[in-house]
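Let's study my pick:
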Amino acid sequence: MPHPELTLEKRIEAELCGLDATLCLYADDLHGRVIERGADRVFESASTIKVFVLGCLFAKAAAGTAELDAVLTYEAKHFVDGSGMLRALGTGAQLRALDAATLMIVCSDNIATNMLIDYLGLAAINEFIAAVGCPNTRLHRMLASDNWGAPLGSITPRDYGHFFARLAKGELVSPAASEAMRGIFRQQHYNQMFIGSLPPYYTDAEESGADPELIYTATKSGSMDACRNDGGLVHTPYGDYVLAMMCTDFKNKLEVNDHPAFLYGARVSRLLFDQYLALEGRFERRFDGAEG
C-alpha cells in the first residue's frame, strides 16, 4: 500500500502548493479510479463549452435535424473578436458545418462558433448538454465583443471529464461519431496546460518519428479573464484516461504561455501521465490480486 502521505492525491497537492490561484480537477482512469479536487465547483467555461456545440452538431446530424455538409455563411451578426481564422476572410465566406466545427475546435475560432450556435440553436445545444449527463454545464449566449465580462457558459471539472469519458468509450452520440470527434480534438492547437510537461517525443510525433498512434492527446482548452481551463483524454497502449483542469482566482490576466495555471496544470498532467503508464493503465495499483 502507498504511504498515506504519498498517495496520488497527496502528490497532486504537493505539486500545487506554490500556486497562487485555485486549480480544480477531475481525472478518471476509466477502470473505476477517479481523482477529484474541487470537481463540482462551477467555473466560467470559456471555450471549453465549444465541445458541446460539436457534440450537438453530430447528435442532430445523427437524428436528421442537421447536416454536417450544410453550407453556412459568415454574416455580420457572427463577428466577434478573439481567436480564429475567419476574421481574415470577411463576411460572406461560406463553409460546411463540419468545417466550421473543425475550426471551432482546432483553432478555437469564435466566429465559426457563432455560426454553429446560430445554425443549431442555443436551446438545442443546452438540451444536448443535459442529455449527455452534464447537469452543471450550460451555454448562456453567443460570443460578442462588447460583453466579454458576461458569462459565456458554466461548467464543472466533473462535467467536462464526463464528456470526454463518454467520448473515450465511444458513447458520445455513436461509436462512429465519437471517433470522428476524437480525430478533431487530436488536432487542437491550444493545449499547453494539458501537454506542456508531457514528453515531446510523444506530443510531437511528426518531428520525433514516434508512432503517432502510440500515445496522443485529444483535448480542448478555454481561457478568459476569469479562468484557464483544459481537458480531454490521453490515449496510450494501455487504454485511455481522462483529465479536466480548471483554474481561477489568479492575478495574471495576460494570455501568455508561461501563465501559472499552464505551468502548474502541466505538472499535474505529467504526474498523472507517469502514474498511468507506470501502473500500466491505472491510477492506482490493485492489491486484491485481481487482474484487468
The mean pLDDT is 95. The domain at 1-41+156-292 is CATH 3.40.710.10 (Beta-lactamase). DSSP finds eleven helices and ten strands in the chain.
